[in-house]
Amino acid sequence: MAKSEKQGLGIKGIDELHFYVHDLERSRDHYVQRLDFTEVAVSSPSFEREQGARASLLEAGNVRFVFMEPLSARARAGESARFLSRHPEGVGRIVLEVEDLRHAHTSLLARGATPLSAIEHAVSEHGAMSWFDIVTALGDTQMRFVQYEQRRSLHPGLMRTGRSPQNRFGIAQIDHVTSNFLTLQPALMWMQEVLGFERYWGIEFHTSDLQHTQDGGSGLKSVVMWDPRSGIKFANNEPAAPAFHASQIYRFCEEHRGPGVQHVALSVADMLSAVRDMRRLGVSFMPTPASYYELLPHRMSVLGVACLDEPLAALAELEILVDGDGTQGYLLQIFLREAAGLFADPEAGPLFIELIQRKGDQGFGAGNFRALFESIERQQGRERAA
Questions:
Q1: Contact criterion met (CB below 8 Å) for 82 and 255
Q2: Sequence-ordered list of residues with C-beta below 8 angstroms from that of 338, at least 6 positions apart, any chain
Q3: 185 φ, ψ to 5°?
Q4: What are the backbone dihedrals phi and psi of residue 269, each rounded to the nearest 5 degrees, phi first?
Q5: Distance between first and last Cα of the chain
Q6: What span, in angstroms and rounded, lies between the C-alpha atoms of 307 and 304?
Q7: Are 158 and 47 in contact (CB under 8 A)?
């Protein structure tokens, strides 16, 4: 992987993701009732006046999602309204916590970052914090850098509910964030030259490889960039020719009306238990063909994974994907249905959630990319036919 000579920004991790939505209750209820997130804060009247939106902060483990819905009384005023005037629901801001905000600010401006705000400060009963925003190469998704004075606190204008998060599924943290583009190189260059990230992992594939034909199929090129000090990772995809316009990546950009965040991967402690319990609660996952599990023992043998801790029958029953490297171990992953399908509403957007459990392997399921593509395309075909 290529090494960057740039000094790090002092990133500690992904602090929050801000989702801009048309229906706050719909999103909140899904994450609270189906994924066992806890609503720990809501917007105050002052927040709603200033932002032109109402908000709900949900937590599970170290994961923080903020959902914001524009208020009709100020339809054009806030950032969530501006985002939703161009896109369906999705991730409008990625918040990164840093050790030294002024160092991050000075470094980013020196590298040509485009600021959206100066450094701002706030002190409340929740604690003191400082932050600033920049434009990104991730479409209309912005990036915020934040520093907390002593402890992780709430952004100004949010009020605590008094509830303590205790996620029954063992959701621990954001493993990675994946974005889709029609062309990848500008985003990779921005991450390298402005953020100082390094290339971590990559893959190119096309389903026509299996068919030995250049007609039909779909594919992608994927490159993961990371900050070595904090370990945060951003995966980035572009469609592959032939059949460029048939690629799931192209379709995402069409449905999202531009590049943006495709999915967010959440780590869990026990995949089998989490998925089994989520299915009982009515969580809908992308389907996996039975043939995948018929071929799995041979594929694991080729990869050098001697044995799995999980019974093959249980993996097949729950439709959990497996990938790995015999030198490191393996990983388990599964993908929830995209929001538009979950809510039967195209304006809910093509964003989806991935669950991942790493058992030594630090890759991104290279062998599962084709299965994911086929799964998404089958599900989309069913929905178009319905």
A1: no
A2: 349, 350, 351, 352, 376
A3: -55, -40
A4: -80, -35
A5: 45
A6: 9
A7: yes
Q: Which two tokens stand for residue 206?
A: 């096309």
Which one of 3.30.530.20, 3.10.180.10, 3.30.565.10, 3.50.50.60 gives the CATH number of domain 174-385?
A: 3.10.180.10
d(CA 2, CA 22): 41
What are the sequence ranges of the domains in the chain? 11-160, 174-385
The whole-model pTM stands at 0.91
Q: Give residue-wise pLDDT tens across range 133-171.
A: 999 999 999 999 999 998 888 888 999 999 998 899 999
Contact between 192 and 113 under an 8 Å Cβ cutoff? The reply is: no
Q: What are 306-349's pLDDT values in tens digits?
A: 889 999 999 999 999 998 876 788 999 999 999 999 999 999 99
Please tell us whether the domain made up of 11-160 is placed in CATH 3.40.225.10.
Answer: no
On the question of a common fold for 11-160 and 174-385, the answer reads: yes
- Residue 263, CB-side half-sphere exposure with 13 Å CA sphere: 24
**Which of 230, 234, 218 has its CA nearest to residue 370?**
218
Nearest Cα residue to 12 out of 162, 174, 247, 127: 174
Cβ atoms < 10 Å from Cβ of 214: 11
- DSSP code, position 2: P
Distance from chain centroid for Cα 81: 21
Q: Find out whether 234 and 225 touch, Cβ atoms under 8 Å.
A: yes
